[in-house]
């Protein structure tokens, strides 16, 4: 999460959350994983994030991305997530 997002959260009283997300072709959908942890994405849209994760999985399975590239790409996704409590309104 960027410093700007952190500052916005502090000003609005929101607390961001750390969550664990499993990636891969056989992993549960990201929205479901977040819901199980009592969280949701404030940004970006969970459908977009799922599309990114699915694209990385397909490229990895096809041998286009190495294991290291796949790991770095998934790490970049995690850095872009703004996760908040599920009860918090947008």
| Beta-strand residue fraction | 5-15%
- Apparent shape: elongated
Q: Specify the number of helices.
A: 4
Q: What's the number of extended β-strand segments?
A: 2
What's the main sheet like?
Answer: 2 strands, antiparallel
Q: Tell me the span between the first and last alpha carbons.
A: 17 Å
User: What's the average pLDDT?
Assistant: 84
Order of helices and strands: HHEHHE
Could you outline the blueprint of secondary structure elements for this entry?
Layout: H1 3-12, H2 30-36, E1 39-43, H3 46-61, H4 67-80, E2 82-85
Antiparallel strand pairs: 1-2
Helix pairs in contact: 3-4
Short description:
Helix content is 52%, strand content 10%. The chain is mainly α and 90 residues long.
Q: Would you kindly provide a written description of the structure presented here, covering whatever features stand out?
A:
This protein has 90 residues and is mainly alpha-helical. It has helices at residues 3-12, 30-36, 46-61, 67-80, and strands at 39-43, 82-85. It has a two-stranded antiparallel sheet. α3 packs antiparallel against α4. It is elongated. The chain starts with a helix and ends in a 5-residue tail after the last strand.
Q: Notable features of this structure?
A:
90 residues, mainly alpha, two-stranded antiparallel ribbon, 4 helices, 2 strands, 10% strand
